[in-house]
Design brief:
Length: 186
C-alpha cells in the first residue's frame, strides 16, 4: 500500500510541475527558483467616488395638491400656489414656507408636487437637470392628516442636494428621495 501512496504523490508532483510549466509560458520551473534581475513593484488600485458639490439647486414648483381619501383616485385638492423657485441648498437643516392651503374636512393621505424645472450650479457652471418625473406623489407620514378644524404642518424633505449626478457628457440628473412628515400645527 505504501507503494501506491508514493506513486500518487509522484503523479501529483509531476502534474504540479506541468501546470507550473504551462502557466509560465513554457519557460520552466527554473524561473520560480532562480533570482530575477528585474525588481518587482506592487501596484495598488483604489476606487473612490467624490460627491458633487452643488453650489445651488434651484427647483421650480408650480402646483401642490392633496389627495382626499374616499373620493377615488381623481380626488385631488389643489393648493393655491404661484410658480415659485427654491434653492434647496439654502434649505439644508432649515425650512421655508411654500404654501398655506385651505382644505375642507376629510382625510388626506398623499401630497403631490408638480416640478417644472431643476437647475444645478456646480463650480460656476449651470446644468439643466432632468428628473425621473415632473410630479412627485409622497405619502404623508406617519399617518394621513384628518382635517376637521385641526391645523397641520407638512414638512417635505426633498433629499436632492446629495443626489445630483453630473455625467461625463455634461448632463445633470437629480434623483430625489422625498419624504413628507406631518404634525399638528402649534
Amino acid at each position: 500500500m505504501k507503494g501506491w501512496v508514493i506513486g500518487a504523490i509522484v503523479v501529483v508532483i509531476v502534474i504540479i510541475g506541468v501546470v507550473a510549466y504551462l502557466m509560465l509560458g513554457g519557460h520552466g520551473i527554473g524561473i520560480i527558483l532562480s533570482r530575477t534581475t528585474n525588481p518587482i513593484s506592487q501596484v495598488y488600485v483604489y476606487l473612490s467616488d467624490k460627491p458633487v458639490k452643488v453650489d445651488h439647486l434651484y427647483v421650480t414648483i408650480n402646483e401642490i395638491a392633496f389627495h382626499k381619501e374616499g373620493g377615488g383616485n381623481d380626488t385631488w385638492v389643489t393648493c393655491s400656489l404661484t410658480q415659485t423657485t427654491f434653492d434647496l441648498v439654502q434649505l439644508v437643516n432649515t425650512s421655508q414656507l411654500v404654501a398655506q392651503c385651505s382644505l375642507t374636512n376629510g382625510t388626506y393621505n398623499i401630497i403631490r408636487l408638480y416640478v417644472t424645472s431643476v437647475q444645478a450650479y456646480v463650480n460656476g457652471q449651470v446644468y439643466n437637470c432632468t428628473l425621473p418625473s415632473g410630479k412627485f406623489e409622497i405619502p404623508l407620514e406617519p399617518s394621513p392628516i384628518v382635517v376637521n378644524g385641526t391645523n397641520y404642518d407638512v414638512s417635505i424633505d426633498f433629499g436632492a442636494v446629495n443626489n445630483v449626478a453630473i455625467t461625463g457628457n455634461g448632463k445633470c440628473v437629480v434623483i430625489p428621495i422625498i419624504h413628507a412628515s406631518t404634525e399638528k400645527h402649534s
